């Protein structure tokens, strides 16, 4: 019985699907291990649920069904019969009273056929009344006996509902216990299989991951790809001539070179930064504040625009604010060397603006996505204003090597090309 019930459960179907999926994966990979363990826990939960349903049926539902389908109907039927007999008795008693009055009137007028007929009718009604009364008393006794019998078993009936809660509690305890143990084991397995980050760790696995999740998983304040790209740019400078460098997707492939190689090689660090920002599930400046940023762009008064920029920045989530501050301070530093690298605040905003802010509608309808709609004038204007007013909006110096893990091979100015 247990097996047949278990097979019909959606949890078992989910377990089967997971089992088929992880067969196609490397069993040593984190995803393969997660699917394999997920398959086992779903099967275990299905068994616990099947045991719960069987116990519920046997210990609660069947006794309560017997009560509702056999014992209670007998009592209710007896009650209905008693009510009908009482109604009949009341009717006969009414007729008897009327007959008694008629007989009394006939007796007052003297003897005759009418008086004799009334007397006979009265006697018949008296006999009927006695018979119905006897039936009422008998049915009432039987009804009271049924109620007494039911009351003696009332505690046992109440115990079925206690049993229901006990079975439910046991089911949830077992399910929670299985889930807790599976979670501990899965997290341990995942943490063991997930390598700790070093300077030789590839960055490809951090692209397309929500910012909050990325920062939490690595215990960082600034996203690794942002800090890595900034530090590489600080070390090598940002050159305009990047056409001869390898295409960015190659640097993000599973065989991507480690950071130490990227750090010292003339790879397109700027394009890597743009790619990371664009692949975030939510732009660094957030979907929620998109309209607010656009409103800022429409402000003509400089002071009003700066104040509005400050207010909107303060509404960013902490993670987004810290990374935007870090990046904008770097871009402002980059713009200081615009005579050499040609990277004015306007040029930088045109290059990076569409990757820092875009509307949610553009992601929901990919067919409508085009460069003109993403690189809106408002977005470019806002990002340019952020760079131009970086020191006002984000006072204080920024240690770009915030994690302390990067050691530039040489200190060149941002405007200088690598030899």
UniProtKB/TrEMBL annotation:
GO cellular component: cytosol
Claim: Phosphoprotein is one of the keywords in the record: yes
Organism superkingdom: Eukaryota
Any one GO molecular function term: GTPase activator activity
UniProt-listed InterPro entries: AH/BAR_dom_sf, BAR_dom, RHG17/44/SH3BP1-like, Rho_GTPase_activation_prot, RhoGAP_dom
Chain ranges of the Rho-GAP domain: 209-394
Organism field: Cariama cristata (Red-legged seriema)
Name under which the protein is recorded: SH3 domain-binding protein 1
Location of this chain's protein in the cell: Cytoplasm, Cytosol
Domain BAR stretches: 1-196
Key words of the record: Coiled coil, Cytoplasm, GTPase activation, Phosphoprotein
Xref: PANTHER family: 3BP-1 RELATED RHOGAP, BARGIN-RELATED
